[in-house]
Structures are given as structure tokens and as C-alpha cells.
Design a protein that fits this description.
Layout (H helix, E strand, L loop, with lengths): L11 H4 L6 H16 L6 E9 L2 E12 L3 H20 L3 E13 H9 L1
Parallel strand pairs: 2-3
Antiparallel strand pairs: 1-2
Helix pairs in contact: 2-3
Length: 115
């Protein structure tokens, strides 16, 4: 049995693979959601990720101030999280689901500050 020429140490086939954990993907997605929401006060974001066969699905729960364009903000968050997660992990994002967990009236938040 003959072997082919030895491979250089830097060739991809000889280096192995990098695996991104779901925990890392979840943290990256949550941070990306916070980045997308940073211009809006009183927001929060939580994420979960399901990675299978080299692809990931992300589910987010966000808290938003009210009144707000919910559809517009969720679309912005969805796009930013999908692109940023792909950029940082290299794992294709097949879907980003955004659930609004809480809407907090801005006037209620302002009243709390005055007390």
C-alpha cells in the first residue's frame, strides 16, 4: 500500500474541524440581539439555539418599551442576529424566531424614576 505525498501541516484536511457549542451560539445570539436593541432603552434579550447538521435555529425572547413598532423592531433584531451569528460562528442560521416576552409602557418607567 502506497501513500500519497505528505500533506503540509496547514492543509484543511489535516487540521480537523472547529465545533461551536450551542451554549456559545446562544450567547452570541443574545449579545447580537442586545446590539440590535441598544438604541432603545429598557430592553432585554434571552436566546436559545438548536444546532444540528452544521446549521442552527435561534429563538429569542425580547422585552421592549411600549409604544414601539413591534414588527419593525422584531424584523431588525431577526436580521441582525442572523447575520451577526453567522459572521461570528461560521454556522449558517436557518431561522431566527423572535418572541416579545414583555411590553413595558414608557410612561410607567418614567413615573418610577420620579418616585
Amino acid at each position: 500500500m502506497t501513500q500519497g505525498p505528505p500533506r503540509a501541516p496547514g492543509e484543511p484536511a489535516s487540521r480537523g474541524a472547529t465545533v461551536i457549542s450551542e451554549r456559545a451560539t446562544r450567547r452570541i445570539a443574545a449579545q447580537a440581539a442586545r446590539e440590535a436593541l441598544e438604541s432603545r432603552p429598557h430592553t432585554a434579550a434571552r436566546a436559545s439555539a438548536d444546532t444540528r447538521r452544521g446549521r442552527t435555529k435561534i429563538a429569542l425572547e425580547v422585552d421592549l418599551p411600549y409604544p414601539v413598532d413591534i414588527d419593525g423592531v422584531c424584523g431588525q433584531v431577526r436580521r441582525h442576529v442572523g447575520s451577526r451569528t453567522l459572521e461570528l460562528t461560521g454556522v449558517p442560521v436557518t431561522s431566527v424566531e423572535v418572541l416579545v416576552g414583555r411590553l413595558t409602557p414608557v410612561h410607567a418607567l418614567d413615573a418610577e424614576r420620579l418616585v
